[in-house]
Amino acid sequence: MIHFFLLFFLSFSGVRSLGVNYGQVGDNLPSPDKVLELLTSLNISKVRIYDTNPQILTSFANSNTELIVTIENEMLTQLLDPQQALQWVVTHIKPYFPAVRITGIAVGNEIFTGNDTVLMANLVPAMMAIHEALGELGLGSYIHVSTPTSLAVLEESFPPSAGSFKGEVSSYISQFLQFLSRTKAPFWVNAYPYFAYKDNPDIISLDYALLNAMTYLVDPSTKLNYDNMLYAQVDAVIFGMARLGFDGIEVRVSETGWPSKGDVDEIGANSENAAIYNRNLLRRQLANEGTPLRPNTRLEVYLFALFNEDMKPGPTSERNYGLYQPDGTMAYNMGLSTSSASVSLSSSATK
């Protein structure tokens, strides 16, 4: 009964806060216009891409889809020059806006958990240059600038009230938080309970990792009840920011998901768990839930990912986070239903 309710509700209303990551690391993916057709049929109107692919931007024009675009890590150094940053916005954003509803620019991805301290030092100056370029072109109030950060940036994450950033990156994080506070942009975090469960299956409850609300953990400091790991991870980030003197910055989840297939040592990576995790995530999004620390602030979440991507390097799981196969068949059924049974994704690939 719950499953059919989700199908009915989603088909007619969509999910206001649920977005999806549309990756393109595959040689057999459908064309952007077919992808838009699928997203529209699912009533998903928030999408994040990992570049500024002109084919995607052109295809998404005059749709109701809100788009977050990405500046690749290797581009950051060039953007320290204000003129280069302005030229980037003139080339990659201005020709498409407002026909394409670009709402955010992600400057790099998971930079604070890499080993490149030069890149870390350049991140906020590059973000400032892009933000100022947007302002110069009259776009600053429409498009926020931020960067997705891996949860691995935290030194402590449980209990949530103990949340703190690693000492070696705290100075960079402080500079970043100062920028977010000044520009009113969100802190984006890539949060995957799957990784924590895979590494500690004897310690972490599978129900807790799958958002099943069958295990409740109490933060001894705040006495807040946590029935799932994702919300605990988000609140740990909020506490970490407070420790550096920053309250009130919104935290959004730029990536979360569960792989439907994995290698032998990737415990828990299977289609059953992937379906449970994403159905529970969808159910919570339909309820417009906030975390225990911020119950009245709806948590915005971007699911990873729309498609299985066959060219991603790494373990088997990396190629199996998708809700869909590239041919349009479901990788598993998480409770999403298209409003039309005729959506077909058979077309040439985009690269």
TrEMBL record:
Reactions performed catalytically: Hydrolysis of (1->3)-beta-D-glucosidic linkages in (1->3)-beta-D-glucans
GO biological process: carbohydrate metabolic process
A Pfam family it matches: Glyco_hydro_17
GO molecular function: glucan endo-1,3-beta-D-glucosidase activity
Keyword Signal attributed: yes
This protein's record includes keyword Hydrolase: yes
Alphabetized UniProt keyword annotations: Glycosidase, Hydrolase, Signal
Family annotation (SUPFAM superfamilies): (Trans)glycosidases
EC number of this enzyme: 3.2.1.39
Enzyme class: hydrolase
Signal sequence bounds: 1-17
Family: Belongs to the glycosyl hydrolase 17 family.
The name this protein goes by in its record: glucan endo-1,3-beta-D-glucosidase
